[in-house]
Automatic annotation (TrEMBL):
It holds the Pfam family DUF2368. PANTHER family: PLASMINOGEN RECEPTOR (KT) (PTHR13411). The chain crosses the membrane at residues 53-72. This is Plasminogen receptor (KT). The keyword Glycoprotein does not apply. It comes from Elysia crispata (lettuce slug). It comes from the Eukaryota. Keywords: Membrane, Transmembrane, Transmembrane helix.
Length: 154
């Protein structure tokens, strides 16, 4: 009689472990999908921000270029056109970031760093562990005993 109960309990335990494993796997997949969607939204916001800034920059660049061109032609001082050179470089960079293939080049460079220069990505003291985080928390708690205002009067 006892072996019958132990067999059914073992079977139930195995079923429960399999169910928990599937549940954990599903939760992990959902978490990964959520993190990926958040990453995609952040990238979209970054691209939208650079495109918005690009149009502000183009407006500024157009006004400055027009003013410099009119001033150079009126005064016959063509040296006034020299600031257009760095302004054109900045405008080209902003266009490349907003509409050009710069993000693709950045992604390729990031892939190359991950593949070839992995040591640059290491954290200074390695990955934090639970024990190191707990030790730091306890040390901070020990070093700051009078954190709240009412503790001064004790």
């Amino acid at each position: 009689m006892g072996s019958f109960f132990s067999k059914t309990m073992d079977e139930n335990l195995k079923k429960q472990q399999e169910f928990m494993l599937k549940t954990q796997q599903l939760a992990m997949e959902r978490q990964m999908a959520m993190q990926n969607e958040l990453r995609e939204r952040q990238m979209a916001m970054m691209i939208a921000k650079s495109r918005d800034f690009f149009w502000y920059w183009v407006t500024f660049d157009t006004l400055v270029s027009t003013g410099l061109l009119v001033g150079a032609l009126k005064r016959k001082k063509y040296a006034l056109l020299l600031p257009l050179i760095p302004l054109s470089f900045v405008t080209t960079y902003q266009w490349d970031l907003a509409y050009g293939p710069k993000i693709g080049r950045m992604r390729e460079m990031a892939d190359r760093i991950i593949d070839e220069e992995r040591s640059l990505l290491d954290l200074p003291h390695g990955l934090p562990t639970f024990s190191s985080i707990e030790a730091a928390r306890l040390d901070q708690k020990k070093n700051e005993p009078y954190k709240s205002g009412h503790d001064i009067f004790l």
